[in-house]
Amino acid sequence: MADEAKFIVDEKEIEKELFRIQNENKKANILICGQTGTGKSSAINYVFDDNIADVSAGKPCTRDTKLYSSEQINIFDSEGYEVGGESQQHYSKILFDDFLSKRTGNNDDSIHLVWYAISGAGKRITDLDKELVEKIQKSGFRVCVILTKIDELDEEQFQAMTKTLKSTFNNIKYFSLSTKDKEIPELKAYTQWDELISWSCEQIPDIRKTRFISALKDAIKEKHDQAQKIISLTTAGAVTAAASPIPFSDAAILIPLQTGMVIQIASLYGMKLEGSAITSFLSSAVISNLGKTVAGNLIKLIPGVGSVIGAMINGTVAGGFTYAIGYALNELLYKNALEKAEGKSPTFDLIKILSGTEFLNQVSNIFENYKKQEQYKKNSQDKPSQDEKSDETK
Fold first, then answer.
1. I need a labelling partner for 362 at 20 to 30 A (CA). Which of 128, 134, 181, 304 fits?
2. DSSP 3-state of 358
3. Is 0.90 surpassed by the pTM of this model?
4. Which residues are paired to 75 by β-bridges?
5. Backbone angles phi, psi at 73, to 5 degrees
6. For residue 7, which phi and psi values (nearest 5 degrees)?
7. Of residues 219, 321, 327, the one with CA closest to residue 268
8. Are 67 and 59 in contact (CB under 8 A)?
9. Nearest 5 degrees, angle CA 309-CA 250-CA 282?
């Protein structure tokens, strides 16, 4: 027992980390606007989790605009205008004067992305559509056009609509969509949900990207890629923290970093770890078990160290340890998300799995590979270049 690493999780440190994560990962504000009857609510529910647009009737925000809000995202649904109706004359004023003009920039009240909806069922793009989309773009907003209900178009009509979209909005992205593509497989060849999600993820400011991606219903690749970015940043932080080697017994200073990483990765995939549950989780499941694993196996990878007592953690060990936890967790959740997307219903107890032997062995293997890669990089940097070799022979 004396050789086992003792880790103490400080609840105050965990709270500080939660506060930091909240401040570093802000919610994005999305506006969906355009004609009435384009199926905006259906599009929202197709893309985002928890049927957000079905929650009550939405909270009134301004005249003709409703707010649908969750922990991860705010979606503003503009009521739209009737083609040829009186509301068409006032829609531009309502959209800009009452709403968008007050939400410029990149702060918590700003609109960070605009989806402008045009219904394929209407089989036309109005002059007002063109005017509004161009005005939204010129006003500095990230905007795209979504052509909805393409299932109501035949092949010839679809080709005509997309040709008109291309000529009308030559500098603005457009995406053809139908919420019936899961019922009608033939529509898959024409719908661009994945392209819309990919483009939207690129447009969202970095500080709001993690929450935006976590709000998406599927977007499994985007979740995996964003988790990898979080892992890379956290690993770099762990390396910096151990720039001056620290005693292994003091390795708990890495826990806030690893805590933040675990929370962010889990939340990306729709799993919530908050408050006292995190403290319990880190104390009993991950850290204590990983501590024993490191003591029994990983510590052997540190040259010249026979036991945990007196062992020092350098940047490579701290970074590798952190990277291994994040990478193993991301792959586990990614695999689970893929199974879910395939219609499978895997029972998934995150804490139970993370404290299990299989996960710990996976972390150990990843850690070992990380160290080998770091040693290879070091050897490559230390190896004399061809020019240096030539100089040495002169």
1. 304
2. helix
3. no
4. 30, 68
5. -155, 155
6. -115, 130
7. 219
8. yes
9. 110
